[in-house]
Amino acid sequence: MTDTCPRALTTLADAPASEFDLSDPAFITDPAAGERWTGGPRPVCRGRFADGTDIWVATAYEDVRKVLGEPTLRSRPPGDSHRESMLSRGIPEDIVDMFDSTLLTMDGADHMRVRRLVTRALSARRMQALTPAITRVAHRLLDDLAGKPEPDLIADYAHPLAIIVICEMLGVDEHYREQWRDWSETLAQALRPNPEQFAPAVRGMARMTKEIIEARQAEPRDDLISELVQVHEEDSDRLTDDELVALAMVLVQAGHETVRNLIALGVFTLLQHPEQLKQFTSDPSIAAKAVAELVRHTAPVKHTFRRFATEPVEIGGVTVQPGEAIQVVLAAANRDPEEFEQPQELDLTREHNPHLGFGRGAHYCLGASLALIEGEVALTALFERFPDLQLAVDPAEIAPRYLLAMQRLPVHLTPRKGEE
């Protein structure tokens, strides 16, 4: 562990600056910049958010656990700064209030009220029941892959599988999905948005979501959006107009982006660890455990949103003062040697694996069960169908960056015997 920050600090202003600077373009362009903060924990110290403001940064496992479970740390900043931040990122003023009504920015009673409406629909048991349908989608996409000389496993497999599954579950019609995918790619760059692209994407996604909701109001179906519409119509106090639209948008956006990254990073990482890949393909019984280890090791979600202190709170030997922000690096916490044995090693049969890849506490990822099932199905089906799959480019060309998900994953395919 590199001890770059004193442990007896009481204010953010007292702390020396660290290398964790999300406003630095290196976090997008230089793989080494991110690796310095995902390779393991450091003491809590001062960093910089993408907008240039100072933040505390927590990377050690126990510090991250405390931040994620601390009720006095809130998602929404004090005063009007959150609204101003959204406007500065290109969110149109007329829909800012709607974007301020998402689960990601809610806390306390409001957060639990909205969260409870979808928790049952996304329960582990209900997600497990989707496995046959997810498997059919995966095999259909693999059929299409077989005819391509050099397919891109992100564009041709990981992304369509993730978007198809979440859209079918929610009830987003097929003719919306390609447009939604394009907008989602733009919104995924929320920390470094292009205002000319970001505002139209946000507005278009909100408009399309309202269209889908109106269609379900007129003609309900057996899908999650129809369930939410029914709740809204029966009791608008449980779910307001803005909350309904924002919730549907967040579920689609978050429900496919994390899965896309998990599948892409999983394939990339397994190909870099041939002995582990051999173990994965030869022993189907380890699939669930293996995917959990891939979440820990590859960190499809590198960090969480900032949390803001409402009263002084001690984290890792420093005091986060009211109004100050702290950000946790999940990727580093999941490689903490105080919690994990040989944390830098990929071990698909790891027994002790209380990873924080999906967060913890009140904001624990609602779609964690679905993501794990999709990852298990997607990776198992892919390597069963193409056991000798290989990268078509040098790994350094496509290696993931800290703030930029893998953009492409070109491969050469070799089908199993009997399918040539």
From TrEMBL:
CDD domains in UniProt: CYP107-like (cd11029)
Protein name (record): Cytochrome P450
Lineage of source species: Bacteria, Bacillati, Actinomycetota, Actinomycetes, Kitasatosporales
Keywords on record: Heme, Iron, Metal-binding, Monooxygenase, Oxidoreductase
A Pfam family hit: p450
PANTHER family membership: BIOTIN BIOSYNTHESIS CYTOCHROME P450, P450, PUTATIVE (EUROFUNG)-RELATED
Entry-linked PROSITE patterns: CYTOCHROME_P450
Family membership noted in the UniProt record: Belongs to the cytochrome P450 family.
Record InterPro entries: Cyt_P450, Cyt_P450_B, Cyt_P450_CS, Cyt_P450_sf
Keyword match Heme: yes
